[in-house]
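# step 3/5: fold
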Amino acid sequence: MNDYICPICGNTDSKYIGFRNGKPYCRKCITFRGQEATGEYTQLDSADWTLKYELSDDQKRLSKQLLENFQNGIDSLVHIVCGSPKTTNP
C-alpha cells in the first residue's frame, strides 16, 4: 500500500505498515501512542516553536546538537535518568 500516510508520524514506508482487522497501522509509532491509524493525515501550515522559559546551558547545548543532527540526517537518541529535570516549568 504505497499511498498510505501515517496520521501520527507521517511515515509512508510500506515496510512499516501493518494491517489489523483489514485496516492499516504504522509499526513505526504504534508502540509509542497505542493508537490505531485512521488513514487521514493533517499537515500543519505553521507552528509556534517559541519557549516561554529559558533553557539551561546543558539543554541549549543538547538542543543545538540535536538540531544539527536533524539537519544533517543523523538519527539521535537522548538518554536521561528518570526524575532529572528534562524541562523547566515556567
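# step 4/5: annotate
The two ends are 45 Å apart (CA to CA).
# step 5/5: archive (pending)
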